[in-house]
Task: structure prediction
Amino acid sequence: MEFATFWLAATPLFAVPLIAAALGLILNERAGVLNLGCEGIMLCSALAATAAYLETGQSVALGLVVAIIAGAVVALGFGIFVVILRTNQVVTGITVVFLGSGLTGLIGVPWTNVALGGLQPIHIPGLTGIPVIGRFLFGQDPVVYVVLALVGVVSYALYRTRIGLKLRAVGENPQAADADGVNVEAYRLFAVMAGGALIGLAGGYLALASAKIFVFDMTQGRGWIAVALVIFARWMPWRALLGGLLFGGIEAVIPRIKAEGLPIPQYFLEMAPYAVTLFVLIYAAIRLRAGQDAPKALGVPYVRQDRR
Amino acid sequence: MTRRSWLRSTRLALEVRQRIPPLHRAAFILGALIVGLAICVAILVGRGVGLASIYEEFIAFTFFKASGVSTVIVQSTPLVLAGLSASLAFRVNYWNIGIEGQLFMGVIGATLVAIFDVGPESIRLVLMLVAAIVLGAAWALPPALLKVRLNVSEVISTLLFSYIAFYFVLNQVYGPWQDPKDKFPHSEQYDAIERLPPIGWEQVHYGIVVALAAVAVVWWLVERSRFGIQSRFVGTSPRMALAIGLPVGAIVASSAVLSGGMAGAAGFVIATATEFRLTPAMAAGYGFSGIVIAFLAGNRPFATLIVACLMGGLYVAGESMKVFYSLPDALVGLIQAIVVLSVTASEFFVRYRLRLAHYRGA
Result:
């Protein structure tokens, strides 16, 4: 009982960075841009959030805003390369990961390994006290509820608005979209920046809420897990929410199992998120045939003059 | 015509160049390299490193002093193998991001042979090399099969395998293989017979023979063998390769496995010539370095050798930057990332021409 209460209560703390990053990646990939630099963008924004938080009198809100801006700015740099200069999206993405790691390692020293007060959960009298699910549903920090709302916003924007329609068109068939007067480059850049802002929120939340500290390379592959999550979610925001909760739940159970003192070797436990991601990818490939749902122009630079 | 309508009727158009003169290409790439390196120098100067000491550490010591050159050669040896590893996979558009994991498995293979004293001492080192290659290749096999059979993205699966290998290494060095002598999280030191011997000049060891042999083998494989021609087809146009009946899946999978074996060999060299044991930090950075080397060398074996030596110089200089200016390890990765970005950007200007296009009646 107590195990379940604590586990459920801790799950959103791990799930939110994955969900926010996956939402950002869905925006990117729906417009045809494969953003493998997610991990690097998350690192940069985690540092930006920590620095802003520590330098401005410990304001979490300001830290998160700075993280969102940092994410959008780094993503804009990535976007200029892959959208305007048409560079190889895989090579550029991987490079952004190491750029983020190197940059935060070089300039992040003064803000690294400083414990932060960070973001605190809310308390609603009566509701938070409900057994087992009370803290899970009503005892989270405000950002959890904001991200929950963002899932709906992104979903609505993608499927129910003109901008979302054009954005998806650019990712499915840029030739047709271009012929119809849609500015492919502009939409892709917009998608990359909007997605980068969400990835930035994920990084900022990771530092200020999940870990409450910034350490070198703290993302630990979460950006890549988010990339896998998008495939599992078949590029749909609601499924990313479910997948994020599943992955977050697995991450959240590790410290619980350690606390319970179960006889499982520690480092095999640490492998779990990566192994589960792998199994989920295989499941998605076999049972869901996820590949069919991928945006058709994903990862392909668009050049109007290219004959096809 | 007013100025405003002129602006409206004019836009920047991209034109694909029909023909790219080699000199033109070289000039753009050289220009990009200069811009990238200038950014790196600016970053170093910004961190309080003087121009004179940048020249001293990055050029004078690494390339013009016997002790420096030998350090660079020692550092370059595993980098050559990591670069070859990446290039073998990239040739067929297989993005092997898990080189570090395969390298770790290589070290685990070598360490297994060393710990359990497998085989006679006279061929112990050879057995260690074979074990390293086999385990590295074996670790690259599942993602390759997943890619070929189920079309699971190798970018993610190889990376996940890398993380799993890393935690397995941690499990070993904090558990069964922890050094009984000093209780530190690394394996017991290899015996003298299990270390690559020096060739007799400065600190250079026989790893250089392994690396040069690997370059020769890969050169033969990609330039002279049937496999090389077929894999070039697969890399340039997979649909065409399928259409003419090439076994695309088998070629991609075997390239990936060869890449893993080469990464295992890199692990063998680091373990038997530098570390003499399994440590959790020994693979750090080799994955990305391999990718960078293969990318800058255009997947060509001899160019890989040269670029790897330049990277070796960067590693050695980065090491002294770390000691003398307390700059972080991440510096090397940052410089590599900046250089790669500037070179990828230059490809745009090589491939396309920007032109002002006028549209009437817009």
